[in-house]
Amino acid sequence: MAPQPKPLMTREHIARIEVGHTRMTRPMAWALTLAMLATIAAVPLLQHVDHFRAYRAGLRDSVWPQAYDIFKAVPVAISAGLESKRSLPGRILDGNNVLREAIHDYTATLEGVSVAAGAVRPYTQYVLTAWLGVGTDEVYIGRDGWLFYRPTIEYLTDPGFLEPRQLAHRAAGRPGEPAIQPDPRPAIFEFNRQLAERGIRLIVFPAPAKPMIYPEKFTATFDGRPGVPQNPSFDRFKRELEGEGILVFDPSEALAAAKTSGPRYLATDTHWRPEAVEQVAQRLGDFIEQNVRLPPVPPAGYRSETLDVTNLGDVARMLRLPPGLEVFPAETVTAHPIVTRRGQWWRPRRSADVLILGDSFANVFSLRPMNWGESAGLVEQLSYRLQRPLDAILRNGSGAWGPRETLSHELARGDDRLAGKRVVVWEFAVRELSEGDWRFADMTLGERPAREFFVPVPGSEVIVTGEIRGLSEIPRPGMAPYRYHIMAIHLTDVRTVRDDKPAGDAVVYIWSMQANVLTAAARFRVGQTVTLRLKPWSDVSQMYEAINRSELEDETLHLEEPCWGEVVNP
Q1: What SS3 state is found at 222?
Q2: pTM for the structure as a whole
Q3: H or E segment at 514?
Q4: Residues contacting residue 217 through CB under 8 Å, at least 6 positions apart
Q5: Which of 92, 113, 322, 525 lies at a 20 to 30 A Cα distance from 497?
Q6: How do the pLDDT tens digits run along the chain, 570 residues long?
Q7: Domains defined along the chain, listed by start
Q8: End-to-end Cα, the chain, rounded Å
Q9: How many CB atoms lie within 10 A of CB 497?
Q10: Strand 502-514 relative to strand 563-567: parallel, antiparallel, unpaired?
């Protein structure tokens, strides 16, 4: 009988045989196992050492690392389930939702404070960005060195922001978070009604997003294609507002048409260039004069100067690349600051008959902490175009709610910021239509409350001690689009240091983050006694009002006149 040929073996079969017969000495096996365990243990051990060192230095109020905070969520979740009024499966689901949200917050916070991640992430991101062209969860890498902020892209690619399913999805929110108002129309209609009762005309101004004007810098699909991309709901939104008699100013087509004469947006930043700011201010001035009759005033005598500014854009900074290994170069622009007849920087005037509510699109080139110069932003350029004083309430980060919140608080305190106004221009980033919280804001004028809270005499400063009763939330460095933040503090048992006299309570605004670095105040805790140097908020509001800030949870404190604080002996 002839011998049978051996069956041919595939590469996969041979590999399985060889792997299955891999031989390893016992010392080598122990060495590899110990190396693996040491690598796994090194990360939490390093975190423990770093947090203990921070505790010894007074930078943390607990010797226990943040890694153990998750255990606090278990009794909270159990309590939520027991307090639920639903059936047993519903109670389990409610408790699970609370625990799931706690785990989400815990992992996000742990990621931000991880020593190992902080050391490795910048270099890993450098390799991903420089070699592979990959951004982050918040940053998309475009073409020709352009960067895009994720929400600006999602505004264009998501379903219409007025679609019922989209509104329901946003209204539901995430478990454990307060409900939001996703539909912009009711808040805008109500605000228009509130202003109309006082004879004030409203102009709504959605500032175009960068990918609307430069879609070809994001994808080659738009090479040579005319038109401006928009969210599917925008045209309907505009028609409904105009149907209610609300003026809508949309400069997107004009900005797109002007691209041939030079760039209109910053390549590595969310915002527009000075050329676009000035172009829009000119057109907005024309729009106001065509639609609103303003009383004549003598020319203010404002004049324009020239200033070259070099800065790295906010989107590029969000990549958090290692120092000295920049992938995207800083940009240089020529801004035109507006100054008075006496050569002083332009400043808003509360008695003006035009009020601008705005966000960072109005602040860029105006607010010094944004590092693009000052006194050259949208409000200044509009004031220069009209040659009349303007009033302004600007807040970075939340054009849908922040400026209206500030205005509402001032009115509630009896400070009539709307007195004498003829026009309110409400500017907000267009992406707010799909991601903003469009809560109602009460515009009722209240009475000035009796002085129960301590505020120094205007033009003075006082050093006080006090116990912290409440703190507002603060952002995590590098996780927010803005590098500066102001927090609010509720102080009780306030006493002046000089004469040890009791002064009641105080609401204090204070720096919590500067240039993406947390301040000493950011480490404050409820119950802690602190020493602060206070001055009236009114003395500094023109400088700091536009900075992104958070308010105290107790809304009754929003009616109190605040102070500005600085830490003494941090």
Answers
A1: helix
A2: 0.78
A3: strand 502-514
A4: 142, 143, 144, 146, 148, 211, 267
A5: 525
A6: 555 555 556 656 666 666 556 677 888 889 889 988 888 887 788 777 877 777 777 666 677 776 677 787 788 888 888 888 888 888 888 888 878 877 877 776 666 667 777 788 888 898 999 999 999 999 999 999 999 999 999 999 999 999 999 999 999 876 556 678 999 999 999 999 999 999 999 999 999 999 999 999 999 999 989 899 999 999 999 999 999 999 999 999 999 999 999 999 999 999 999 999 999 999 999 999 999 999 999 999 999 999 999 999 999 999 999 988 889 999 999 999 999 998 888 989 889 999 999 999 999 999 888 999 989 999 999 999 999 999 999 999 889 999 999 999 989 988 899 999 999 999 999 999 999 999 999 999 998 766 579 999 999 999 999 989 888 888 767 666 788 999 999 998 899 998 888 888 999 999 999 988 889 898 887 778 899 999 999 999 988 999 999 899 888 888 899 999 999 975
A7: 141-220+227-300+347-435 (no CATH), 462-567 (2.40.50)
A8: 97
A9: 14
A10: parallel
Q: Which residue has the tokens 């206070």?
A: 534
Q: Are 382 and 356 in contact (CB under 8 A)?
A: yes
- Give how far Cα 508 sits from Cα of 352, 456, 475, 543, 564, Å: 28, 12, 18, 16, 6
The sign of the CA dihedral 407, 411, 415, 421 is positive
